[in-house]
Amino acid sequence: MRKLKNSELDRLNVDEFKSAEKTPLIVILDNIRSLNNIGSVFRTSDAFLIKKIYLCGITATPPHNDIRKTALGSTESVSWEYIENTIDLVKNLQSEGIKVISIEQAEKAIMLQNFQPEQGTTYAIIFGNEVKGVAQDVVDASDHVIEIPQFGTKHSLNISVSCGVVVWDLFSKMNA
Q: Disulfide-capable partner of 39 in 62, 70, 156, 166 (CB 3.0 to 4.6 Å)?
């Protein structure tokens, strides 16, 4: 088996990406500290044609060298916006008919493998601070809470890994 060269991958250029039909998913980063995590989320969002990323609270914004290092140019392709207050954003998105989902460990959370997205619905998925997770008031305001099942000794996954797992799962279900 021969590895493919980048030139053989038939990827979109930035203009093609911007005009392509997007996956009905929005990513919200709620007070993310790590610039490398932010860059990784941009890269994952590019890979799955995510509609938009919202950067909230203390989450840093492009351009920044540490974001750029892991984003590898995806800050130029993926639409993004900074909104200071996550709750204001959640309420605004819900008023537009977008279903908001916190990715968190919580009472009555739906396990990721059991969540079935509704066709024709746009979802905004919120990933929280590396230490504190999604803020409780944001969890309370969410339409759903999804938990990624884990079976080892640790209590959580890295934010960029969580984003990759959830985005891939929802993308797969939406495009089945």
A: 70
The separation between CA 159 and the C-alpha centre of its own chain, rounded to angstroms, equals 9
Please give the Cα distance from 112 to 139 (Å, whole number). Answer: 16
Give the model's pLDDT for residue 176: 85
Nearest to 97 by CA among 118, 127, 113, 128: 118
Continuous H helices in the chain: 14-19, 35-47, 65-71, 74-77, 86-95, 136-141, 159-174
pLDDT number for residue 147 = 98
Are β-strands 99-103 and 123-128 bridged in parallel, bridged antiparallel, or unpaired? parallel
Task: Indicate the pTM of the whole model.
Answer: 0.96
The CA distances from residue 141 to 29, 32, 86, 91, 158, in Å, are: 15, 19, 10, 8, 23
Kindly give, in sequence order, each residue whose CB lies less than 8 Å from that of residue 92, ignoring residues fewer than 6 positions away. none
Q: Which amino acid, 8? A: E
Distance CA 157, CA 84 (A): 25
Mean pLDDT of 46-50: 98
- For residue 4, count other CB atoms closer than 10 A to its CB: 9
Residue with tokens 């709620």: 30
Is the separation of the CB atoms in 49 and 167 below 8 Å?
no
